[in-house]
Amino acid sequence: MPSGILPHAQGLTPNGDVPVTDRGLAYGDGLFETIAVVDGKPKLLAAHLARLQRGAERLVIAGLDFNAIETAVGAASAAFSSHGAVKLMVTRGDGPRGYTPPVAQNPRWWLQSFAWTPPTALPTGAHVAISSVRLGEQPLLAGLKHLNRLEQVLARAEYPASRADEALMLDSAGRLVCATSANIIVVREGKLFTPRLDRCGVAGVVRGALLAGASRGDLPWSITETELTPASLVGAEEVFLTSALRGVWAVAAVEGTPVPSGQVAKACFDYWSALP
């Protein structure tokens, strides 16, 4: 399937364009989801749609037809012969000049398709750096995958792929939050820890799946949401990243310091791989 905007959409112009009056363009007033497609089926779709719905409720974006979106994502996924990725973009729609949201909302959404390299073809371990770009704390937006990603853009500009596979990001108090496009889990003394996301950061669907699996006993470890700092990485038995397209990606080094490899990341990768 070629990359580009797909015919599954709501509110685009007859030519399939996004109008310049769109609030997503003007203010980043919207949300997005990037969904892995495996064997023509969208992976963790229910979790993606649940996060989208939570985001829409938090931002008070009304009028989205989630059944239509689910059907469209399924159809777009089925068009792939095997693997792929579908990106769903949602905005509040058009509005007049100014920040105040329009009373009458006509939200807009569209899908894009992309080639996707399965995680098994990625390097065995990620080399990560710690970005100097700090995440601003805003509890009202914490956990959401909203369209305002300038902090991540600046972090990746600081550490492009030629310098590091990923860049870890801290909040204004120096607490570890996430990577630019992934969550992080740290293994210490046989226990798993992941940063709390009540101040900032995105609550990833793979992170959520592992938390749910651990709470049900599907995984042999518990995962504790807590405050972590860069010092929490020193002496860690394992560190790994989670994201919708990477699944579970072990960290091989942080700022050039090697991190041991182990069975926890592999077991979590296998668990993710088996999820529909």
Please, could you describe this protein's structure?
The strands form two sheets. Strands 6, 7, 8, 9, 10, 11, 12, 13 and 14 form a nine-stranded mixed sheet that branches. A five-stranded antiparallel sheet has the order 1-5-4-2-3. It has helices at residues 23-27, 45-59, 66-78, 150-158, 205-216, 263-274; strands at 4-10, 30-38, 41-42, 84-91, 108-114, 126-135, 166-171, 176-179, 183-188, 191-195, 223-226, 238-243, 247-254, 257-258. The protein has 276 residues and is α+β, with helices and mostly antiparallel strands. It contains six helices and 14 strands. The two termini are 22 Å apart. It has two domains: 4-116, D-amino Acid Aminotransferase, Chain A, domain 1; 121-274, Alpha-Beta Barrel (D-amino Acid Aminotransferase, Chain A, domain 2). The model has no long low-confidence stretch (mean pLDDT 94). Helix content is 24%, strand content 30%. It is globular.
List key phrases describing it.
276 residues; alpha+beta; D-amino Acid Aminotransferase, Chain A, domain 1; D-amino Acid Aminotransferase, Chain A, domain 2; nine-stranded mixed beta sheet; five-stranded antiparallel beta sheet; 24% helix
Brief summary of the model shown:
The chain is of the alpha+beta class.
Would you spell out the secondary-structure blueprint of this structure?
Blueprint: E1 4-10, H1 23-27, E2 30-38, E3 41-42, H2 45-59, H3 66-78, E4 84-91, E5 108-114, E6 126-135, H4 150-158, E7 166-171, E8 176-179, E9 183-188, E10 191-195, H5 205-216, E11 223-226, E12 238-243, E13 247-254, E14 257-258, H6 263-274
